């Protein structure tokens, strides 16, 4: 399987990125750039080819490229971000994916949808509702993905920014999250509570390896105890902007 991932370099206005659920703390732009490079290097070291979406330097949050698109099979559904100031970010992602040969569809007004609200495992696509993504966005995504055999399920998100700020899935489909920040842990069969908020976020690198934040050492030990190999990266400057490891890439498989 060809493993490629979209990434987008942080811009000069990164420190002005949106903050909704946590207090604002100063972001070190130079450290952020080094951490981003470390993240890209980690993907490459694990066999992922990285493709840079052209910078959108007027948009402080553009580095969080995950929010601009949902890719399923050969279809790229370009998002319509719930935050107005993030809407200009999608054009560069769309151009990049079109050039790679993806079919393009778009979430249209009044729909809003952020890629960070979309969690996929096997044929199921969970969509977080309550923050940046609305019912119209979910309905449009469901209609676009139905012909590809995906089942789209809405779930509430009120305590964190995006669905994937609260939960992600391990390679075997087990959903992990930091319980105080998950609206309905019981709604996820086999939910695994992790001891740190930053431990909620895993990026699947292959069937036994996950990428996660080095801010969550106890979760790392928990996952290693379950037989997973963990690659940890420093993403503190992005965490100050409610970002996490998932937000910094869009994996393209196949
Ligand atoms: C899963 N997550 C958290 C994401 N996909 N995106 C994070 C975006 C953060 C940005 N400051 C914002 O507020 O939009």
UniProtKB/TrEMBL annotation:
Q: Which domain of life is it from?
A: Bacteria
Print the keywords alphabetically.
Hydrolase
Q: InterPro entries annotated for this entry?
A: DDAH-like
Q: Give the family from UniProt.
A: Belongs to the DDAH family.
> Which residues does UniProt mark as catalytic?
162 (proton donor), 247 (nucleophile)
Q: What is this protein called?
A: Dimethylargininase
Q: From the record, what ranges are coiled-coil?
A: none
Question: What is an example of a GO molecular function annotated in this UniProt entry?
Answer: amino acid binding
What phylogenetic lineage does the species belong to?
Bacteria, Bacillati, Actinomycetota, Actinomycetes, Geodermatophilales
Q: Which GO terms describe its biological process?
A: arginine metabolic process; citrulline metabolic process; positive regulation of nitric oxide biosynthetic process
């Amino acid at each position: 399987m060809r493993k490629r991932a979209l990434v987008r370099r942080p811009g000069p206005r990164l420190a002005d990125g949106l903050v909704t659920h946590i207090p604002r703390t100063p972001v070190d732009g130079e450290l952020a750039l080094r951490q981003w490079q470390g993240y890209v290097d980690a993907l490459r070291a694990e066999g992922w080819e990285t493709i840079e979406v052209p910078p959108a330097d007027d948009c402080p949050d553009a580095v969080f490229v995950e929010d601009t698109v949902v890719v399923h099979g050969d279809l790229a559904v370009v998002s319509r971000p719930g935050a107005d100031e993030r809407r200009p970010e999608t054009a560069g992602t769309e151009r990049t994916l079109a050039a790679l040969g993806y079919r393009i569809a778009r979430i249209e007004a009044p729909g809003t949808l952020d890629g960070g609200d979309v969690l996929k495992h096997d044929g199921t696509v969970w969509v977080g509702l309550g923050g940046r993504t609305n019912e119209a966005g979910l309905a449009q995504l469901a209609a676009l993905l139905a012909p590809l055999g995906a089942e789209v399920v809405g779930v509430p998100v009120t305590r964190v920014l995006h669905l994937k700020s609260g939960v992600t899935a391990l390679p075997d489909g087990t959903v992990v999250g930091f319980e105080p920040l998950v609206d309905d842990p019981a709604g996820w069969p086999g939910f695994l509570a992790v001891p740190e908020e930053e431990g909620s976020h895993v990026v699947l690198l292959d069937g036994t390896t996950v990428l996660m934040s080095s801010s969550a050492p106890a979760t790392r030990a928990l996952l290693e105890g379950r037989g997973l190999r963990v690659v940890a990266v420093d993403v503190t400057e992005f965490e100050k902007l409610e970002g996490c490891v998932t937000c910094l890439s869009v994996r393209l498989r196949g």
